[in-house]
Amino acid sequence: MTTSLPLRGRALLLALLALAVLPLPALAAGENYGRLSGYVYDPTGTPLSEVPLTLSGPALQQPQERSSGEDGRYEFPLVPPGEGYTLEVKVEGFTPIKLTNISVRLGQTTPVDVKLEVFTETQAVATYEITERVNPIINPDSAETGAVVTAEKAASTPVYNQVQTIAQLVAGVGPGNSPSLRGGLSRWGKFYVDGMDTTDVSDGSITATMNYYAVENFEVITGGLDAQYNALGVVQNIVTKTGSNNWTYDATLVLQPAWSAAKTQYASNQPLNTGNLLNSTTRQAETTFYAPLLAFGGPIVKDRLWFYASGQWNFSMREIPLTIKGQQENRPRDTQTKLARLKLTWQPTSRDRVSFAVNVDNNTITNNIGSATTSPEAESRIDRGGYFLIGNYDHSFSDNVLFQLQTGATYKHAYLGPQNDDMNAISHADENDNFFTTGSSGSLSSSIAGNYSTEDKWRFQFDPTVLVKAGAHQMKGGVQLGYLMGTLNVGTTGNYRYTDKGGICNPEDPSTFGYCNTRAAFYGSNDVLGSNTTSGAVAQLGAFVQDRWTVNRQLTLIAGLRADVGRLYGDDGAFVTNLVGIGPRVSATYDLTNDRKTLLKAHYGRSNEVGDVFIAQRANPDIQRYTATFNPAAGAFPDCGPGTPLANNVCTRSGGANGRSFASTHTPTSVDEVSLGLHREVSQGVVLGTDLTYRRYNNMWVDEEINQIWDATGTRVIGNVNGTAGEVFLIHNPDSAWRDYKGVDLWAQGKLGGWDLLASYTLGFNNGTVASYFDGYGSNPRTQYLFEGPTPDDIRHTLKGAINYATSFGLDFGVRMRYLTGTPLWQYQSLTSPNATNLYRSPRGTGYTVNRGLANFNDPSTISELRNPDLFVIDAQARYDVGRLFNIKNKFEITAMVVNVLNNTSTTSIIDQYAASNSNYGLSRGRNGGLQAELLLRFRN
Fold first, then answer.
1. What confidence category does residue 121 fall into, taking pLDDT thresholds of 50, 70 and 90?
2. Do residues 469 and 461 lie in contact, with contact meaning Cβ atoms separated by under 8 Å?
3. β-pairing, 235-240 with 598-608?
4. What is the bridge-based pairing of β-strands 34-41 and 114-115?
5. Which of 320, 383, 564, 599 is most buried, with most CB under 10 Å away?
6. What residues are paired with 912 via a beta bridge?
7. From residue 530, how far is each of 104, 468, 654 by CA, in Å?
8. Burial of 317 by CB count in 10 Å (0-12 exposed, 13-18 middle, 19+ buried)?
9. How many C-alpha atoms does 114 have within 13 Å on its Cβ side?
10. Measuring CA to CA, how many Å separate 736 from each of 699, 701, 768, 769?
11. What is the average pLDDT value for the chain, to the nearest integer?
12. What is the pLDDT of residue 185?
């Protein structure tokens, strides 16, 4: 019987491998646990088999038991991440041993070897307790790169209380809450919560955020992915806290009054003719933030059923300094965020564990436009929120066969529209007054014609996995099913929008006819005056298999294979395309010094993107806009709409069927990664590492214009392939659409005395032809060669660190710093015909030394590198446990945090658009936010 289980496991894995070659893809489940493994030896170094081992710790409701194999190796595969584990070994004839203070990290293996001593008479009544501080950062079972940030590390680091901020601390990860990774796009990131994929179905962000202090561990994976993951970007796996037999509570209050933040010394969001003047004499804009957070957990049924609940409510007000018609005003942008979460955990038997969690959030923002070209009554607001439901089930058929299921659903709703909720108000923009907008907000963005939108997104996920141990092989296989869908409704209030000249046009009032210029009417794709609703969906199903072979104590080989397929559907369920990708993985780790202190890692792997809702919706029809030019002689606007002849520039049309269609076949976007790393424990608990990485991103999504014929200079359309003027786009994945990354990370991580280190330096080179999906590459074949060069996120040098120091008397300090060199820019001119495109005249990342009023185009001697300024920011905090002064058993912490200690408000981006006259080329486009301070009061046990 002990041999039949592994055989059945192998049969199951073979069946999963067969599924992997069927037309099915996946978004793999994340890890919820860590592992503990090692070897048991006798005094001569000979491996001992069938030795019983018991693992206990505060994160375990019940101790776990395992036995060593024929080679002396043991493994505890499902260990909740945490500190203070104890491994106990009792064997007849040998001295009993306890190894204590063992740490287990999320998704990593902690190596702990056991050397038994022969029992003697003098030790007859003794139990030896040996303290060993093993280092879980040295992970011999995987070639993955990244870091695990514990809840305590996060709390002692000066970062805002957002779960999305943690990934920025890790080597190779870019800035922002949806960060890019090693030459990739931010939209490729993956967010897992308790092992389930909660990534937004269209943009790579998290579906719904959560209470920051409800998280136990933040796992950030940057490369060397095991076969269970399919990601082209950074993987963030957030494991939340679980209730236990002990009652816990955690209450925090965040305070940031107006006096604690530096005042803005310059006007933002201004028309450029105001010059972004510094040192305004009017009242300076203020910023405030307040947030109560509460979390508590405990037993419902002791030893069987536990709960953990949390909530958070953020109140934020950030005034925006504006200069409107010569008058300064500080327009308040008020933001409220409400978060709530409940997690239930049930362990009916020692072999079964079930958990269920629900997370809800809501976020509202007023005065969202915040522009000097928008009147207060034309402001818009955001109202968005969502939830996710997560179910996990773990079952141990035996010590050698484990089953896991991660399943759930996510939902996200987002509304952007008029702040006054007047859906009949009509927008007026005065082109004689810098297109100042009144009545109702203008368009949502340059790419969305309407001024209100409602978007709903869903994800349904079902991911079973089987793990089988057979001798020195640890095998894993799984099937991952997902269904992603979304609907988008876009419209314009009142169904009309006016562009006026010098006043407000009212076509019913002859006294205003002198102000009348153009009027746009908006129709849905069904030719009915009103809004436009479209939809998209992606069906996903996939499979993976992986074998981790512990060849011996020094060498581990990991081989895996996954198959991913996506079936995309556009508007009204119309089939778009299939995307099929195979992702092989092979890795090796080698302990160079045979002491678990020097690890060499090598990896090759491929991940494939098999579509999302954003791509599925790309060819959907847009809202139609019919623009009429006022006829002064008739004193009226001509009737322009569906069926109206478009002639003599009286009526123009845009939107509707957008001229885009998908190619018949596609090669999915993919990344090939080759990496080599050397990790060395330089002192007890501290590891230094060097990771070399090459990544090649292939076959990115492009809109290729296939109708217009350009002249040799690429500045004028001289004909059309189909004989009809207009753009026609083919959506596909050409081989010429690529990016690559070459880089090295030097990093330090670990604890040394009172110090806790997480620091890195990255030298990286990002190049390619595509900045993002559908970014204009392919719109003009004559200038396509100019697109090759440094990508917009090419940050050559990045130095970052999160360093903490804890004293013995309850006071600790945290410092976070980051230095980033400037990103490339691309000098361009606006080309009004055809179709208001941008004209690039030098390779990406370069510009010209331009004299005002004189363009030096086509003179190679004037070309130079063009980049934004470098950025250097330091944050700091101090935290003290006041409870120690009054001998309070529980912690009462007061934290003072200062963001941007140096109050560095230097320019972060410059204007790279050139014009022959009135050019603002080279002026400041944006500045770094000023100093802000927060006070946090936290009471917890």
1. low
2. no
3. unpaired
4. parallel
5. 564
6. none
7. 58, 58, 15
8. middle
9. 35
10. 7, 10, 9, 7
11. 86
12. 93
Among residues 453, 473, 435, the alpha carbon closest in space to that of 533 is found at: 453
pLDDT digits (tens, 9 = 90+) for 143-183: 999 998 888 899 999 988 888 889 999 999 999 888 899 99
Backbone angles phi, psi at 886, to 5 degrees: -115, 15
User: pLDDT of 747-760, one tens digit each?
Assistant: 999 888 889 999 99
Question: How many whole angstroms from its chain centre is CA 504?
Answer: 44
Quote the CA–CA distance of 408 and 194 in Å, as a whole number.
11
What confidence tens digit (pLDDT) does each residue in 382-430 have? 999 999 999 999 998 988 898 999 999 999 999 999 998 999 999 999 9
Strands (DSSP E) contained in 592-641 are 598-608, 622-629
- Helix, strand or coil for residue 121? helix
Give whole-number Cα distances, 715 to 92, 681, 825, 852, in Å. Answer: 87, 59, 21, 22
Q: How far apart are CA 505 and CA 55, in angstroms?
A: 78
C-alpha distances (whole Å) from 505 to each of 438, 500, 523, 529 are 12, 6, 21, 21
Listed in sequence order, the residues at least 6 apart from 301 whose beta carbon sits closer than 8 Å to its beta carbon are none
Rounded to whole angstroms, the Cα distance separating 630 from 637 reads 5
Q: Of 569, 616, 737, 566, whose CA–CA distance to 202 is shortest?
A: 616
Quote the tokens at residue 321.
């300094």
- The CA distance from 703 to 615, in Å, is 11
Which DSSP state fits 543?
E
Q: What is the pLDDT of residue 399?
A: 80
The Cα 719–Cα 24 span in angstroms is 43
- The type of residue at 762 is T
Kindly state the tokens that stand for 519. Answer: 């009027």
Tokens of 26: 């996946």
Residue 524: Cβ within 10 Å count = 21
196 in Cβ contact with 29 (< 8 Å): yes
- Residues 490 and 453 sit within 8 Å (Cβ to Cβ): yes
| CB of 360 closer than 8 Å to CB of 351 | no
Residue 941 to residue 930: CA distance in whole angstroms: 35
The answer to whether residues 803 and 757 touch, using CB atoms and an 8 Å cutoff, is yes
Express each pLDDT in 538-570 by its tens digit: 999 989 999 999 898 899 999 999 999 999 999
In this prediction, residue 658 carries a pLDDT of 75
276 confidence band (pLDDT: 50, 70, 90): very low
DSSP three-state, residue 246: coil
126, pLDDT greater than 70: no
207 in Cβ contact with 193 (< 8 Å) = no
Q: Is 86 exposed, middle or buried (0-12, 13-18, 19+ CB in 10 A)?
A: middle
Nearest to 138 by CA among 541, 593, 476, 741: 593
Query: What is the band of 281 on the pLDDT scale with cuts at 50, 70, 90?
Result: low
Q: How many CA atoms does the CB half-sphere of 286 hold within 13 Å?
A: 9
Give residue for tokens 């269904």.
483
Helices (H), 130-177: 151-155
SS3 of residue 471 by DSSP: coil
140 with 591: CB under 8 angstroms?
A: yes
pLDDT in tens, 659-677: 889 998 999 999 999 999 9
Which tokens belong to 594? 């045979």
The model's pTM is 0.85
Angle made by CA atoms 311, 317, 318, in degrees to the nearest 5? 135
Tokens 């019940």 -> residue: 62
Looking up tokens 């089939």 gives 575
When pLDDT is cut at 50, 70 and 90, the band that residue 11 belongs to is very low
Distance of CA 447 to the CA centre of its chain: 23
CA 224 to chain centre: 18
